[in-house]
Amino acid sequence: MIPETILTNALLVLPTEVLAGTIVIRGDRIADVQPGRSHAASAQDLGGDHVIPGIVDVHTDNLERQVQPRATARWPSRSAMIAHDSQTAAAGVTTVLDALCLGDLGFDAGRTQTFKEGVQDLDALSGTGLLRSDHFLHLRCELPAADMVELVDPVADHPLVRMISLMDHSPGVGQYRDVDRYKKMRVRQHSLSPDQVDRRIAELLEQRGRLREPQRRWLIDRVRHRALPLASHDDATPEEIAANAADGIMISEFPVAMEAAEAAKRMGVQVIAGAPNIVRGGSHSGNVAAADLVRAGAVDVLASDYVPPAMIEAAWLAVGHGDTTLPDAVAMITDRAARMAGFTDRGRIEAGLRADLVQVRPHEGHAIVRKVWRAGERVA
């Protein structure tokens, strides 16, 4: 007999409206969505809370934060993965693309180990039923890195890969357009002298001149057969958006300037913005505020970037600021994100789709996750 769960007395956030109603779950699917309350004895009364689809996070670096909880303390990788999974589920994220960096630009050598161990841990855990969220891979490929090709090639055909970003974190480019700010950051983070950082910057720029374009072309050709969604990272100008679109890169991830995001929308390129940017009230790198992008209608999807709970808080904040409606804000973290990553079985509260659901209670400007279901099973 297929188990049945009835969730009633809830405000259901549907694609175009908020409905006071009831959801019937059978097995791992939504069987029915009804207006009004259920009087079935088995129905769970949600006390008037909101219910949204399970959140789909297309980009999170949260695993790196669990692997390196302190600058001098590296955590065992399997333990870090389990902690990361628990945090995503508790934040209402039922589908997560773990964004792992491939390529070292000289300041983050530990990321290569995190990438290799992260893939191994997902391979070991994905089929066990022990993970609370549904995990996939988002490959963040550092185009000017000397080791990028050798790291990408063995995993380019991995079945869990759902998205690939083409990144360039060289000083003077994208997120790090302000070279003086970049230099101060590296001096502070790595206990280096300004002269040491200057020498490394010069080496990186020479390396970028040699490697970026040939490795960019190699990467696009290497993954073309899979028709994966490709994203550019930290776009600053309309010209960058246009050049990427000409190569089939139809996602702009974390554009750093309003003109780049607006150009993306004009060209039919989807835009990802960072939810922490909205929660903090601005970019930690001094770039465009994501709230301004939402207000301008220049955002398709919000991603957690480095704080999973930011997803739901950012959606509610955007509504509270009058920048968008609740169905639209929720779609940025559910339906649109699911479609961007190629999922057709989740992202909306709709009969026939997977029963990934989150019970949310707004309280004093915050959105509190109270319960989470993935494929009909309570996971948080």
Note down, in words, how this protein is organized.
The chain is 36% helix and 26% strand. The strands form two sheets. Strands 1, 2, 3, 4, 5, 14, 15 and 16 form an eight-stranded mixed beta sheet that branches. The model has no long low-confidence stretch (mean pLDDT 93).
Give helix % range. Answer: 25-40%
Question: Per the principal axes of the C-alpha atoms, what is the gross shape?
Answer: globular
Give the amount of beta strand, in percent: 25-35%
Run of helices and strands: EEEEEEHHEHEHEHHEHEHEHHEHHHEEE
Number of strands: 16
Reported for the largest beta sheet, the result is: 8 strands, mixed
Rg (C-alpha, Å): 21 Å
Give the class from helix and strand content and strand pairing: alpha/beta
Low-confidence stretches: none
Cα separation of the termini: 24 Å
Query: Helical region count?
Result: 13
Could you tell me the mean pLDDT? 93
